[in-house]
Amino acid sequence: MARYHPIMPAQLDWHGNAPLSREHADIYFSSDGGIAETEHVFLQSNQLPQRWQAAKTFTVAETGFGSGLNFLCAVDLWLKTAPADGQLQYISVEKHPLTPTDLRRAHSPWPQFNTISEALLDDYPALVYGLHRRDFFNGRVTLTLLFGDAAELFSELNTTVDAWFLDGFAPSKNPQMWSETLFQQIARLTPAGGSFATFTAAGNVRRGLKEAGFEVKTVTGFGRKRDMLCGQRIISTPPKKSPGDGRTATPPWFRHPTPDTTTKEAIVIGGGLAGTSISHALARRHWQVTLIERHLQLAQEASGNPSGIVLPRLTADMGSDGQFYLSAFLYTSHWLNRLKAQDATLPWHPSGVFQFEDEATQARLKQLLLPEQIIEFCDAARATHHSGMRQTGGGLFYPTAGWVEPPALCRWLLHDQQPRITPHLHQQALTLHHDGQLWQVEGPDGTIVRAAVVIIANGDDAQRLLGHHALTLHRVRGQIAYLPASAQSSTLKIPLCYDGYLTPSHHGQHCSGATYDTHNSSTEINPDDQQKILTALSKALPNFDAQPATGGRVAFRCSTQDHLPIIGPVPDFDFYQHQYHNLRHGKPARHYPPAQYQPNLYITTGHGSRGLVSCPMAAEMIAATLNHEPALTPSSLTAATHPARFTIRALKKAS
Hints:
Number of domains: 3
Shape: globular
Structural class: alpha/beta
Mean pLDDT: 93
Strand content: 15-25%
Number of helices: 18
Low-confidence stretches: 241-248
Distance between the termini: 26 Å
């Protein structure tokens, strides 16, 4: 997978309100007129908006977001000329993004774009490596920002691009970007007929695009530039190399299928956060969803705790788990903030979260160079300031983290998208059967409902429903304690995390927990576990006025071997066993056929103790796939959460 890199913001000099890159000693847009240059080079030369008049969706990709001027111009034109029900997918990469302050200054000369600029600045992501998705104008425009190296991050994409804006600093001043590797990735993502345009006419760019399978034309440039290049992908001229070959290629066993359905109707099995978040994500895209839940009410299993904490799980090496949970946190906290802005009654409390950590751990995490809006390293005095309660140790403060009421959130998600979501409560999904056209879900009294698409979101019961244990799910018992609030404890303003956690007072009580037990199946409150929770609390917070517990709750989390969730299409496990049985011999991936899957069957489960962070992003990952949108996560993280990953690991180790 791609290695995590700290993101360094652009270092700028200014000529008035026009930025200039110190690193490349080059301008971000033409001094002859930036808007006119964008219109001539990128919009007209890609024959926009003529091409998107009949398009339900249109995807533009860009090799340098820079000041965002191309984005502002493209969105402005799209909103004025494209069909009202169309969607513009705009994908852009930037190795050194501008800060929000610098973006605002760069946009100040263009008041005609104020509405678009303010929407972008309001939702501009933190400068963190990876993919960041933002929706604008009621879904008419979706921006996917990739912060990092262009060739590396484009190799992690699996989508189709209709038109390219090959921007960025001049090849003579930024030769690392204009590479053969980048041209091969551009070709991989572009179907026959897909176009490109670029301000440069440099020979290496012309040759690189031709070798990658593009027809390249030299046309009149803008302003003082005599020539520029544009053209389209032609199928008769294959690239010199097979695009996607090499270490970044997605192996066939992890390639997702293209959804095969003409209707926007789906069944979701499971009424916890995994099920309600995917129901909401699909309904927001105008799908009709039938939600099946075996209990009388939503969120009666692991999603039923009265409060839970939303924060990232950072690792010093930022491998697949660290990258996934950081991406999930950034997505989910932003998602919750957007919903809160829509409805102030949403049970989300973006208070920030403090986590006790020793100095050695803090030193390792400082090497990640994350921005302060994500993490602040605190001594005891700063911890006291943030928490509202005297602390004796330091650690990490996450300003954009917070806590949520999961049952209330699940109910809110369904209510928000009525009547597109039809809940069937107190209905047990006993069997799942495909009749060749549709899935049938049957309960004790026969067929409940039929649909082309089914998403399984019912925790560890997924293995029974699928009749297969290749998912290797584990049932983990967790117990929490309810502690009555006192005058002293009510001063706590934010959740505190240690070997357990403590939430602020809500309705007169704190929640503290949680135990982790893979061998106990009892649903009864265990007094010994209550004492363990209180002991951990008193050790971490010796000054906390802990009152005797008045009760608690037991729930069973669904977890996996590697503590990452299972997200995506359900494999045909028999096909995997037959076609990939000799993976242990180390044959190149190209010798194996593409994976086969159960038709239009998807799953989101195994979220463990971090489902509040991962469930919303998992929902968006599946919904984007079903709606034929660009992927929300890079291919390496899609593989890390793939439902067949444990099967593949077992086949590679088989003797």
